[in-house]
Design brief:
The protein has 491 residues and is of the alpha+beta class. 40% of the residues lie in helices and 25% in strands. The chain is elongated. The relative contact order is 0.12.
């Protein structure tokens, strides 16, 4: 059931992002009186699940229908040297039935069968549809290619623009409804950090208090690891047993952090207050009570929950003594640890140990913060993207595809988390689409900027070749990212 919930959230978010992105292109094209022949959610190679179009004043619907033929037929011949010649002959529309969709120039809307994308088919534009036949017809006033370069630029940029607008709107809504809550680093420093094996390899120790990264104090504790990665941190200043120590990070720190992909690289630590018991808890059977403080296993001191979790794993299927503080007494409770390595105890909630910082906003206060948050995330994502192309970080090994994206959604349906993730993915889609790769919006924008500056338009043949190269690159990236996902499944 949890997998189904993740899948449903993924496809709902994907559908929203596609519709918003393509609507940007659609609305801009319509504003400049460019004909949009098709507006599709998902791809309709061969056939579509649903399609609709206004024909002779009536909305016509088709279900599980094959693609409609074009308004011309292709005639192939051979010249004297045997070379193939292609001629495009317009179809006599007067011979078609009155409900034939080729009689209408209105936009065809539909849902394709391949659920990982979507598109607009804009008349007179070389795009992923590779409609060479249309491009060989005389240019019409309502075609994309007939419009000034600045109008074509706006049409191409509108998709990315709408993804950014979506993120801003979502963040404004979330901030005004839920506010912004985070764990201050100063609160974590009350008990110090818990350092995993990689963090200890870098020089961190349990109990260290983070003071700064590259000389900069990071207020939100959850951003510390991200700041180390994106900021290419060289030094981290910590307080250890009253002394200030500067940890020099190794040159391959970023590469190792990306390879580990472990959120617990450094984490907060808290005393282990017993809050509740699970069903069949061995700790409860041994006499443990709510309010006890767990401080050790056998002769090993575990004053913190995180230390206890780390040590308990080494005693699976063994008889152990768990030491607890109750009032002013220290008790040793004998129990047999099952093979799962858990004693069936829930710790007290985070709010019992730390004071979370909560900022509340009215709708109008949330507007500038929503803008700021969106552009901060765009900058962060851009930095992450740059890491992928840096060989020394080996970040390309961490690139994920649709499986990785699906995994980030929670097991339960939480609307606030769903919209946060949708906003993040909208930013990711905007940044990826603006890359100057043919077949992406950024590629078209790059060629349009060249045309605006030089006043020279690239030839249709050049655009066709560039589009094919771009499609190959995008397909290779998709295969690589999803291939990484598959490999991770078997590791």
């Amino acid at each position: 059931m949890t997998i189904l919930i993740k899948v449903l959230q993924f496809f709902l978010a994907l559908s929203i992002l596609i519709i918003i992105h393509e609507f940007g292109h659609f609305a801009a094209a319509k504003a400049f009186k460019v004909r949009v022949e098709k507006f599709y959610l998902f791809f309709d190679w061969g056939f579509s699940l649903v399609r609709m179009k206004r024909v002779n004043g009536k909305m016509r619907f088709r279900f599980f229908a094959k693609n409609v033929p074009e308004k011309y037929e292709t005639i192939e011949t051979r010249d004297e040297k045997g070379k193939k010649q292609v001629e495009y002959k317009p179809i006599d529309l007067s011979t078609l039935p009155e409900d034939d969709w080729r009689l209408s120039d209105s936009t065809e809307y539909g849902i394709g069968w391949f659920p990982l994308g979507g598109y607009n088919k804009i008349a007179g534009m070389i795009d992923e549809s590779m409609d060479k036949e249309q491009m060989k017809q005389p240019a019409q006033a309502w075609e994309f290619r007939s419009k000034p370069a600045w109008q074509r630029f706006i049409i191409m940029f509108a998709g990315v623009f709408m993804n950014v607008v979506l993120a801003i709107v979502v963040y404004i809504g979330l901030l005004s409804k839920y506010g912004e809550q985070y764990l201050p680093t100063s609160e974590v420093n009350k008990y110090g950090i818990c350092a995993d094996s990689l963090a200890q390899e870098f020089g961190f120790r349990d109990g260290d208090k983070i003071l700064s990264i590259n000389g900069k104090y990071v207020e939100d504790f959850q951003r510390i690891t991200m700041e180390m990665i994106l900021g290419d941190a060289q030094t981290v200043e910590v307080e250890r047993e009253g002394d200030t120590i500067v940890i020099e990070l190794p040159e391959d720190a970023t590469a190792k952090l990306l390879q580990a992909q472990d959120a617990s690289f450094i984490s907060y630590r808290t005393p282990f207050f017993v809050y509740d018991f699970s069903e069949g808890s061995v700790a409860k059977k041994a006499g443990m009570e709510v309010g006890d403080i767990i401080v050790g296993i056998n002769d090993i001191a575990t004053p913190y929950y995180q230390t206890f979790i780390r040590e308990i794993k080494t005693f699976k299927d063994q008889d152990i003594e768990v030491k607890v503080l109750r009032d002013f007494d220290t008790l040793a409770l004998a129990m047999h640890l099952p093979e799962e390595g858990v004693i069936g105890v829930y710790m007290a909630p985070l709010s019992d140990f730390f004071e979370l910082d909560t900022k509340e906003y009215s709708f109008f206060q949330a507007i500038p913060v929503g803008f700021s948050k969106t552009f901060t995330e765009i900058a962060d994502y851009w930095k992450q993207l740059k890491l992928i192309f840096s060989p020394k970080t080996k970040a390309y090994e961490s690139v994920g595809g649709f499986i990785s994206i699906g995994k980030i959604f929670p097991d339960t349906w939480q609307w606030d988390m769903f919209w946060r993730l949708t906003a993040f993915l909208s930013i990711a889609l905007a940044v990826m689409n603006i890359l100057p790769i043919p077949a992406l919006d950024g590629g078209h924008i790059l060629f349009l900027l060249y045309e605006i500056i030089t006043r020279r338009k690239p030839s249709d043949k050049f655009m066709e070749v560039a589009e094919m190269i771009g499609l190959f690159l995008v397909l290779a990236l998709v295969l690589f990212a999803n291939g990484n996902d598959v490999i991770k499944l078997f590791k």
